[in-house]
Amino acid sequence: MNQGEVKSAPRSIKRLVRWLWIAFGTFVVLCSVLFCFIAWGWIGYMPEVDELENPNYKFASEILSSDGKTLGTWSLSKENRVYVGYKDMSHSLIDALIATEDVRFEEHSGIDIRALGRAIVKRGIFLQKNAGGGSTITQQLSKQLYSPGAGNFMERLFQKPIEWVIAVKLERYYTKEELLTMYFNKYDFGNNAVGIKTAANTYFSKDPADLTIEEAATLVGMCKNSSLFNPVRRRELVEQRRNVVLDQMRKADYITEEERDSLMQIPLRLKFHRVDHKEGLATYFREYLRIIMTAKEPHREDYASWQTQKFYEDSLAWENNPLYGWCSKNRKKDGTSYNIYTDGLKIYTTIDSHMQQYAEEAVEEHVGHYLQPLFFKEKRGKSTAPFTNQLTREQVKDIMMRSVRQSERYNTMRNAGYSESDILKAFKTPEQMSVFTWHGVKDTVMTPMDSIKYYKFFLRAGFMSMDPTSGAVKAYVGGPNYAFFQYDMAEVGRRQVGSTIKPFLYALAMENGFTPCDVTRNVPQTLITAAGESWTPRNTSSKRYGEMVTLKWGLANSNNWISAYLMSRLNASSLVRLIHRFGVKNRNIVASPSLCLGPCEISVGEMVSAYTAFVNNGLRCEPMLVTKIEDNEGNVIATFHPQMEEVISASSASKMLTMLRAVINEGTGMRVRRYTSADVGGKTGTTQRNSDGWFVGFTPKLVTGCWVGGEDRDIHFDTMFYGQGAAMALPIWGIFMKKVFADKSLGYSESDVFPYLNNNVCGNDSIPANSPGGIDSIFSE
């Protein structure tokens, strides 16, 4: 090598080094310019400061029971998250997330340079898949908040610098605790479990604060990819991922090596229940509450011509019920209406979760496991089943075709342009379907026509229990199973009430100077209607025929002739007005003599509310569903209070209380004594042909009503033995109250008594137990 060549070598190296520095400097400048352009919003999307300070979260509203249990949530389809604060999360959750996703989380300001460099070298250059990621928790949060799903690798690559800039800004506006809280509230854990509170409840039936270390590790492990690490579908894979998280917690010194080894041996145990508004406790109640809270101000043009009654009820509710249309009536700070699906409200209801559970169990035990098998047995082999044998086959066919035309399937096909013949052919074509049974969902093959008929076989029920002094609704059941029978028979549906209307008639009598001890002869009564026709009611029993009996005896034994006698002495229009004062909103009640036997249609909720007046010194209490509502920051934005109205005088209420207790102690409600010895008043009711069975009963602290019947009024027991209110509805009340009294934590006792009342106020007018009208004949209404 000559001297010239030796001198040129250092020059070449210097030139290379200079160009490398120029390239590096250019790269730094370009990166700086790039990040400035990103920060200024010139490249990609950069949220405004207000949006960074107040991310546009969509939180589900949470429905809570009076004893603090979550009954359910209302949310958009993919935004079922319920907010939870940092202090309400298990420390294990925080430790597991930091140890697994960002061990230097407390040290960096949004970007972990060491982790980023490691990821670039090991994954970018050496293509090591197990090298770990470079994204911090803050970067992952910025991705969740502001990055749309990337369609390919290059799109994702360009998203990264935007996320870095957003992460740095997030670190500027939020504390580390706030960032962790946002992360856990935002993440989608799959199976409609968005946010850590919903996830903890969905997979482990717990609140985030109550999660064990291994449960917290399971959920944090899912943060890598909740679709892949789905504990319901891939239990073994999720368990392996959980153990990786536990090992990371050991490396970060959050747990010891011994704890790690012990926790790894614990099998993955789930208490999984999918979040679904059709499942869980108080489903009918939650749906009814949702409907009334989101109701709009009623305008007549929005209702069909046949919806006059509905418009009337909604108008009354809009004016008098602060909960009805609450979302439309109230405004947020920004002036917009509240949205129960996105605003993260907490709705504190009056429902007691234990009492609700007992009510649902009582309906299932009596209707599902006792009455339903008997009904199947009675209808087996009958050509008109499940309808009464008093109908012809042609009448049954007409009813079925009417049900077909009212079905969603029929209307969908009709709107799609199918002909009538094609639609009917589809209804007669067998297909696979899952159907309801009282022992669980069953997969079967049947035609849609047969499925309509199949569901008509099932008896329905409506149930409500409420505090007579506050109006707090403690339990609410609208049917057998909301997933399959969505028509609410507690507050929405109305049915004829039969003899449960008689206390209103007797209350009118007490208001007009009658007393329980007034006597009349127990003989048939004939009244003349407004049309000039004669009307003579029948009695199901002839006990004490021709004798002088007290009004107290007449109500206790649900005697129709005594009711007709009172109607002859009172005014039918006055009775209609009093029924409306008792809270019944049905405007179609006809002022006729037969009204005393209950042909009018009333809901279970209205009947329960009406009967509170007998317990509450003549004051009727409106059902109260909610006590307060909080916003997503915990501020109380609405409170609700009892609404009462004087219906009858305290003196008349006392007389009615005496007579209604006699119904239980010596009349048609004596079957109550099979379940409890408590101080009870109430009234049974059965409508024509056993179409409806009723019982409304009350203790000093609780008024509870129940109705049982078929979907159509022509679906019923053909014998009174099982078809009357004392057999269909009263046992549900009895089973429920037996469970309530057994639960001492609820505060209801069989020793609770009404204020002193003279049980023998009218002398010995009760019927001996061994007489034709005694306990052996309590099946008569």
Automatic annotation (TrEMBL):
One of its GO terms (cellular component) is outer membrane-bounded periplasmic space. InterPro entries: Beta-lactam/transpept-like (IPR012338), Glyco_trans_51 (IPR001264), Glycosyltr_51/Transpeptidase (IPR050396), Lysozyme-like_dom_sf (IPR023346), PBP_transglycosylase (IPR036950), PCN-bd_Tpept (IPR001460). It comes from the Bacteria. One of its GO terms (molecular function) is peptidoglycan glycosyltransferase activity. Keywords: Carboxypeptidase, Cell membrane, Cell shape, Cell wall biogenesis/degradation, Glycosyltransferase, Hydrolase, Membrane, Multifunctional enzyme, Peptidoglycan synthesis, Protease, Transferase, Transmembrane, Transmembrane helix. Coiled coil: none annotated. One of its GO terms (biological process) is peptidoglycan biosynthetic process. Residues 68-249 form the Glycosyl transferase family domain. The chain crosses the membrane at residues 20-43. Pathway: Cell wall biogenesis; peptidoglycan biosynthesis. Residues 463-701 form the Penicillin-binding protein transpeptidase domain. The keyword ATP-binding does not apply. It catalyses: [GlcNAc-(1->4)-Mur2Ac(oyl-L-Ala-gamma-D-Glu-L-Lys-D-Ala-D-Ala)](n)-di-trans,octa-cis-undecaprenyl diphosphate + beta-D-GlcNAc-(1->4)-Mur2Ac(oyl-L-Ala-gamma-D-Glu-L-Lys-D-Ala-D-Ala)-di-trans,octa-cis-undecaprenyl diphosphate = [GlcNAc-(1->4)-Mur2Ac(oyl-L-Ala-gamma-D-Glu-L-Lys-D-Ala-D-Ala)](n+1)-di-trans,octa-cis-undecaprenyl diphosphate + di-trans,octa-cis-undecaprenyl diphosphate + H(+); Preferential cleavage: (Ac)2-L-Lys-D-Ala-|-D-Ala. Also transpeptidation of peptidyl-alanyl moieties that are N-acyl substituents of D-alanine. It is found in: Cell membrane. Gene3D superfamilies: Biosynthetic peptidoglycan transglycosylase-like, DD-peptidase/beta-lactamase superfamily. In the N-terminal section; belongs to the glycosyltransferase 51 family. PANTHER family: BINDING PROTEIN TRANSPEPTIDASE, PUTATIVE-RELATED, PENICILLIN-BINDING PROTEIN 1B. This is Penicillin-binding protein 1A. It comes from Bacteroides luti.
